[in-house]
UniProtKB/TrEMBL annotation:
GO cellular-component term (any): nuclear origin of replication recognition complex
InterPro entries: AAA+_ATPase, AAA_16, ORC4, ORC4_C, P-loop_NTPase
Domain of life: Eukaryota
Record keywords: DNA replication, DNA-binding, Nucleus
Gene3D superfamilies: P-loop containing nucleotide triphosphate hydrolases
Recorded family membership: Belongs to the ORC4 family.
Organism: Mucor saturninus
Primary location recorded for the protein, binned into one broad class: nucleus
This protein's name: Origin recognition complex subunit 4
Record domain AAA+ ATPase: where: 72-230
Location within or outside the cell: Nucleus
Pfam families: AAA_16 (PF13191), ORC4_C (PF14629)
GO biological process: DNA replication initiation
């Protein structure tokens, strides 16, 4: 082999290695991007920044910093609708405090999982890693004894002891525990000015303070931080965009994100969410499928994926169920819709069948019923019973000796849902016109 040929082979090998390394790097970058975005969407990672929460952040940060640095015990309640950023705010403050000092302990409780004081106590002990040194000599016969022992540990220190920060998510559910013993003792320990403690409650109920007993309320500091949904659409878009924005080194991805949020389709999806609830988590649900489809071939988010995902999220379960019913069952549902239009709110099978017969007779007279036939009463009754089995039709009174075709029932669908189902159903044009009111 000549020297020139050898050099060509060597150059070819180098190019192949470079291309392979570039491909592996690209795949790795997409995988890292996907992992980071999914972590943000499912709550494992915090957003890049908190939007419009500067005042709330400063208030909570100052309060907890006093507990960590100065040993001042305190309590506070964060109140706001779901999706307004209560959990993200608390986690951001704790994360920033840990950068300054790691000399404090965090105990997280949730009213959905700690449904009684015993479970809450076990969780506190687990997170504090309380070890009973003289376990053989000490035994607790009752829950009250173990509770008193745990509280004595919390109250036994002084201002130089390790601060403990309690985070009570779904705070209003703790108020439903018998005698509110857990809340009373936590607030009492925080007020005792011994071991430094901070009790932070998170709730979406505005009337939470009214749920507290007088003795519990008297030990609460009455500090409240209110969080509100986005006040305008532009702010909501910035929050949504911040969820998906990557660090500055990912310039190409961030540039594509700017274009994505200027797309009318994506703007329409965000406007729909903003008008209905202003809950950013609804947007996060739509983002999941789009982020999961990121790949080397599709390294950027696509507006088409967002549209498809939003249609799936907004799909009505009952309307989707109607896709699988027979044509006769659909016609019976349309007959019920026609009765509802006549202000007949409850009906029996005979009334529905008569409405169906009137439609078929009228269709035959007009000569437009080609390919359609009037089903016998027994067949229609069986279809009506199937609708009852699917719970699309439910009885309004207790079944007695009345024949089943004369038992009063009601339709468990809105008229708009029936119209939407008819439009999606592949049925004869006459049935479609009748069901949508075009005929």
């Amino acid at each position: 082999m000549s020297k020139r040929s050898f050099d060509q082979v060597e150059d070819s090998n180098i190019k192949d290695k470079v291309a392979k390394l570039a491909q592996e790097s690209s795949t790795h970058d997409v995988a890292k991007t996907q992992a980071l975005l999914l972590a943000r969407l499912n709550g494992a990672a915090l957003p890049s920044q908190l939007h419009s929460l500067d005042q709330e952040y400063n208030t909570l940060y100052k309060l907890l910093k006093q507990t960590v640095d100065s040993g001042e015990s305190n309590s506070c309640l964060l109140i706001g609708n779901r999706g307004t950023g209560k959990s993200a705010l608390v986690r951001t403050v704790l994360k920033d405090l840990e950068k300054l000092s790691k000399d404090f302990c965090i105990v997280k409780l949730n009213g959905l999982t700690e449904t009684n004081d015993r479970l809450a106590l076990n969780e506190i002990a687990r997170q504090l890693a309380v070890e009973q040194e003289d376990q053989d000599d000490r035994s607790f016969s009752t829950f009250a004894d173990s509770f008193d022992y745990m509280l004595s540990l919390l109250k036994s220190g002084d201002k130089s002891s390790l601060p403990v920060i309690f985070i009570l998510d779904e705070f209003d559910l703790f108020a439903q525990h018998p005698k509110q013993a857990l809340l009373y003792n936590l607030f009492d320990a925080a007020q005792s000015a011994q071991n430094p403690m901070a009790v932070i409650g998170l709730t979406c109920r505005l009337d939470t303070l009214e749920l507290l007993e007088k003795r519990v309320k008297s030990r609460f500091s009455h500090r409240q931080i209110y969080l509100f949904p986005s006040s305008n659409f532009g702010q909501f878009i910035e929050i949504a965009k911040g969820t998906l924005t990557l660090p500055p080194e990912h310039k190409l991805f961030n540039d594509s994100l700017e274009e994505l949020f200027q797309n009318p389709t994506v703007n329409g999806i965000l406007r729909h969410i903003f008008d209905i609830s202003k809950d950013i988590r609804m947007f996060h649900k739509i983002c999941f499928p789009a982020v999961c489809r990121l790949s080397e071939r599709q390294p950027f988010l696509s507006a088409e994926d967002f549209l498809e995902s939003s249609l799936v999220q907004r799909a009505d379960s009952k309307t989707e169920l109607l896709k699988g019913i027979s044509l006769l069952e659909l016609i019976l549902i349309i007959s019920m819709k026609k009765l509802l239009e006549k202000d007949v709110l409850s009906f029996n099978f005979q009334m529905v069948y008569d409405e169906y017969k009137d439609f078929m007779n009228e269709t035959q007279v007009k000569g437009m019923g080609f390919g359609m036939k009037l089903y016998k009463r027994a067949v229609a009754l069986k279809a009506f019973e199937n609708l009852q089995m699917f719970e699309l039709v439910c009885p309004t009174d207790i079944a007695g000796k009345c024949p089943k075709e004369y038992r009063m029932t009601k339709l468990m669908l809105e008229q708009a849902q029936v119209t939407e189902a008819v439009l999606k159903y592949n049925c004869p044009s006459m049935v479609k016109k009748w069901g949508t009111g075009a005929a």
